[in-house]
Specification:
With about 425 residues, the protein is mainly alpha-helical. It folds into four domains: about 55-105 and about 170-215, Helicase, Ruva Protein, domain 3, CATH 1.10.8.350; about 125-165 and about 220-260, no CATH class; about 270-355, Orthogonal Bundle (Lysozyme); about 375-430, no CATH class. It is about 50% helix and about 5% strand. It is built from 18 helices and six strands. The chain has helices spanning about 5-15, 40-75, 80-85, 95-100, 110-115, 120-130, 135-145, 150-160, 170-180, 185-200, 225-230, 245-260, 290-295, 330-335, 340-355, 375-385, 400-410, 425-430; strands at about 170, 210, 270-275, 300, 315, 325-330. The strands form two sheets. Strands 4-3-6-5 form a four-stranded antiparallel sheet. A two-stranded antiparallel ribbon has the order 1-2. Strand 5 and strand 6 form a beta hairpin. The longest helix has about 40 residues, at about 40-75. It is globular. The two termini are about 45 Å apart. The protein binds calcium ion. The site of calcium ion has 7 residues, from loops. It comes from Oceanisphaera avium. GO terms for molecular function: peptidoglycan lytic transglycosylase activity. This is Murein transglycosylase.
C-alpha cells in the first residue's frame, strides 16, 4: 500500500501471477552453464574472478552504507541494539535489485487484469473466508464504518486472502532498495519505520516478512503506513499483521480506508450509459462534477435509470466507447489511496461487488483489441505528434494529453472521439 505508482504497475503482474515476493526464483547470477572447450573454461574463469571481485566490492559498499545509515537511524530514535539485531543477518538481496530494475514492457488489457483479479476461484474463496470470519468482519465494519466487502476485496487482491504474503525479510529488502539508491529517500524512511516497529516489539525481525518492496502482511502495509494506521483489534497488545490470524490486518485496512474518507454503503462506481453526443473530453478522472451535472448531460445507469446521487462523480472510460463506462465516486479515490492505479481500484471495487453476489458488467469489453506495449505507446505518441496532434511528449504513458491528441485526430477523421489508445489506431496512423 502507498506504493509509488511505478511499484504498483510492476506489482500488477506480480501479484496476479500469484507470488508476491517469489516472482522469479531464478538466480540473478549471469554466469552460464559449463562451457565445452578448455579455452572457454579459461575465459569463464577470468569472468568468474571479475564477477567475484565486483560482488566483493559491492558488499563492501553495502557495509559502508549500513554504517552510515546506522547513524541516521540512531538519530531518529532507534536504539543501537535494536538496529544491530535487525541487521544481524541482513545481506544485499540480489533478487530485490533485479525486480526493482525491471520495467514492464508488456502490459495487459484492463479486462485481462480484471478477469484474473476477480476470477471465479478468487470470488469463491473470498465468500468462504468471509463466512468463516463473519463475526470479526461485522465487528470491524461496525467499528470503522467501512464495508466488509471492500476489506475482503483488498485482502483478496493483495495476498489472495493471506495465501501469499511474501517471504522477503523486510529489513533486507528495504536496505537493498536504499543501498541501490534509485529511491534511497523513500526506502530509508520506510526502513526507519520498520525499525520503529521492531523497537515497539510488535514483531520479531525474523517474522517481519513481506513482498520485496517492503509491503508486509495480509494486506501489504508499508512500514510507515503501519505505524500510522495498524490496529490491535484482537486486544493481545500487539498490532500483528503478519500472523496466520488476519484479524489485526483486516482491521488495519479498514482503519486506513476510514482515515481517507470511506463512505459506508456507497459504491465505488456504477456502470452507466452515455448519451449519443457525449463529449469524451469530460471523461477524465480529474473532472469531478455533481450528479446533477451528469444527469443534465443525459448520463444514466446502464439500465436507463437516473444516475444515483453519491455526491460528486467522474466518468471513467477504461476501454474506449466500445467498452463498459462508469461513473466513479469518492470511494474509488479512497481505494486509490491504497494503491494508486485505476486498474487496481476497479479490481478492488468489482471484486467487492462480486463477493456480495454481483455479476459481470453489462457492456462487453472490446476483447479483440490487443494491448499496446510500452514502446508502441511511445510510437503512437510520436506519430500523433508528427501528424500535428501533439501529445506533449512521448513517455509511453497514456494520460490526458495523449487522450486529447487522440480525440483531435479522431474528430479530424470522422471517428467517435473517445481518446482510446488502441492497436488499431496505431495501425491506422502508421499506414498513412
Ligand atoms: Ca493483536
Amino acid at each position: 500500500m502507498l506504493k509509488p505508482s511505478y511499484i504498483s504497475a510492476l506489482m500488477l503482474g506480480v501479484i496476479l501471477s500469484g507470488c508476491t515476493s517469489q516472482a522469479n526464483t531464478a538466480p540473478v547470477s549471469s554466469e552460464t552453464a559449463a562451457p565445452l572447450a578448455t579455452k572457454d573454461n579459461a575465459t569463464n574463469a577470468t569472468q568468474s574472478a571479475t564477477a567475484a571481485s565486483a560482488r566483493a566490492s559491492e558488499l563492501a559498499d553495502f557495509a559502508r552504507w549500513q554504517q552510515k545509515f546506522r547513524q541516521r537511524a540512531i538519530k531518529s530514535g532507534i536504539e543501537p541494539l535494536i538496529f544491530d539485531r535487525a541487521f544481524k543477518s541482513v545481506t544485499l538481496d540480489q533478487q530485490v535489485i533485479k525486480l526493482d530494475g525491471s520495467q514492464a514492457e508488456f502490459t495487459r488489457q484492463i479486462w485481462e487484469y480484471l478477469d484474473t483479479a476477480t476470477s471465479k476461484s478468487r470470488v469463491t474463496t473470498g465468500k468462504e473466508k468471509w463466512q468463516q470470519l463473519r463475526t470479526t468482519l461485522a465487528a470491524i465494519e461496525s467499528r470503522y464504518h467501512v464495508d466488509a466487502k471492500v476489506v475482503m476485496a483488498i485482502w483478496g487482491m493483495e495476498t489472495n486472502y493471506g495465501s501469499y504474503r511474501g517471504n522477503t525479510n523486510t529489513i533486507a529488502g528495504l536496505a537493498t532498495l536504499a543501498f541501490e539508491g534509485r529511491r534511497r529517500e523513500f526506502a530509508e524512511s520506510e526502513l526507519i519505520g520498520a525499525l520503529k516497529i521492531l523497537q515497539a516489539g510488535d514483531v520479531s525481525p525474523e517474522k517481519m516478512r513481506g513482498s520485496w518492496a517492503g509491503a508486509m502482511g495480509h494486506t501489504q502495509f508499508m512500514p510507515t503506513s503501519y505505524l500510522r494506521y495498524a490496529q490491535d483489534f484482537n486486544n493481545d497488545g500487539k498490532r500483528d499483521i503478519w500472523s496466520e490470524d488476519p484479524t489485526d490486518a483486516l482491521a488495519s485496512t479498514a482503519a486506513y480506508l476510514a482515515h481517507f474518507g470511506w463512505q459506508q454503503g456507497a459504491p465505488w462506481g456504477v456502470e452507466i450509459k452515455l448519451p449519443a453526443n457525449f463529449d469524451y473530453a469530460l471523461a477524465e478522472q480529474s473532472n469531478v462534477k455533481p450528479t446533477a451535472y451528469w444527469r443534465q448531460l443525459g448520463v444514466s445507469t446502464i439500465t436507463g435509470q437516473p444516475l444515483p446521487d453519491y455526491g460528486d462523480a467522474a466518468i471513467l472510460v477504461p476501454a474506449g466507447a466500445q467498452g463498459p463506462v462508469f461513473a466513479i465516486f469518492k470511494n474509488f479515490n479512497v481505494i486509490r489511496r491504497y494503491n494508486n492505479a485505476t486498474s487496481y481500484a476497479m479490481a478492488v471495487g468489482h471484486l467487492a461487488d462480486k463477493l456480495e453476489g454481483g455479476g459481470e458488467f453489462s457492456a462487453a469489453w472490446p476483447r479483440t483489441e490487443r494491448a499496446l506495449s510500452r514502446s508502441e505507446k511511445v510510437q503512437l505518441q510520436r506519430v500523433l505528434t508528427a501528424n500535428g496532434f501533439n501529445t506533449q511528449g512521448a513517455d509511453g504513458v497514456i494520460g490526458p494529453n495523449t487522450h486529447s491528441a487522440i480525440r483531435a485526430y479522431q474528430q479530424a477523421n470522422g471517428q467517435v472521439a473517445d481518446g482510446y489508445a488502441s492497436a488499431s489506431l496505431l495501425e491506422q496512423l502508421t499506414k498513412k
